[in-house]
Amino acid sequence: MNNLTAPVKFVEVSVETVSPLRCVTRVILGFFWALFLVALPGRAQTPASEQKTITLEELQQMALQNNPTFRQSAANIQAAEGRKKQSGLYPNPTVGYQGEQIRGGSFHGGEQGFFIQQDIVLGGKLGLNRKIFDQELKQAEMEAEEQKVRVATNVRISYIQALAAQQTLELRHELSKLADDAVETTHQLANVGQADAPDMLESEVEAQQAQLAVTMAEQGQQRVWKALAAVVGNPRLPLTRLEGKLENTPPVDADELVEKIVNESPAVRIAELGVKRAEAAVARERRESIPDLQLRGGMQQNGELLSNGRAVGLQGFADVGVRIPIFNRNQGNIAAAKADAERTKREVDRVKLVLRQRAASVVQNYTFSQTAVDRYKNQMIPRARKAYEMYSKKYQEMAAAYPQVLIAQRTLMQLEISYINALENFATSSLSLQSYLLTDGLEAPSQPGGIDKPVREVNLPMQMVTSPQ
User: Fold this and answer.
1) Is the pLDDT of residue 122 over 60?
2) Cβ distance 199 to 4 under 8 Å?
3) Within 10 Å of residue 460's Cβ, how many Cβ atoms?
């Protein structure tokens, strides 16, 4: 690489006599410089206007229609509504046959008939059941709202990553083209004695490295596109050019967003609803010791003969009873419900701490990315562009070697690639903070029957994975 950065040593001649070698060198370098200037503006004008594109809004609409987790959330709400309805229904009555002292033969005696039995639930236990499952229904509804945030955020982050991969691939192609130009230029300079074998070998190795970088960029684009296609629910979505710019991300107050996450996150609100459910369960267990009223009545035909020789005929009967809570006053279940209520209160604190822990790395990535974006945009890239322009001017004046111009532009493009990576991290971390760290659109919402359990780690915002700089 040192040989490429060394300026070409032109032969000193007088004004009157010009070396033929120098004339040939000037013609060759001028030809490649003309090609270079023609190719330079093309980088900003591609792609072709006829190429099909897709927008973020179209991807979000696609996810709204196809992402299966939305239907799962709707099914969970329906299940919670069914459980709430079932918990408040009155117990069914019992209808049956009853027979006593049944005799046959000529006596035709005994008592035979039917009865109806009904349990009357006392103490407002059915209403308390509905309160418990009403909290579960609210949790399922909150889970559905959380899932909307998850999917929308995942689509936007995948869109940002795909857009960054698209722009990176374009720059990688330009870098590869520059490397190929350097190889051609080095070969031409070698033909006129201005470059040697090490220069050619080094330029060829650099060109091959640039081609490998293009291959990696293409594979990276395929990877992020498949992830985007999966979250929008269309895995066969063909690779399409994306519309948009990475530079449109406004800065946010990270510390303020962390407090918003801790206090307003759907995960916290679900945990708080779990506390209300547990408190309703304690109230319900306290009422369990109030006995239900048991009613039983019916009609029966009494075949016993009276003194006048006639049968007694129809007669009614009724039973009323309660279960006396002497030994079992539901003490154990009340104690368990109290312990569960205490656990759910501590669960709220735990969830908040988990959110703070997971937000810390996102805030760090956001802060660093913001600094990197500012440095690349306002300091490094302008200086690299100025250096490239100065080398270009010197080359036109025959005061610098052509490889120095290529190296200057290659440095500029590499800084632009790093700038794209910084913009990607800045946009994704900012979006993650604004979306309560909910970034996994294919995470299944909790089922209603499991919401009263401790909030699962898998149902909390996942640790955000950031791409390397």
Assistant:
1) yes
2) yes
3) 21
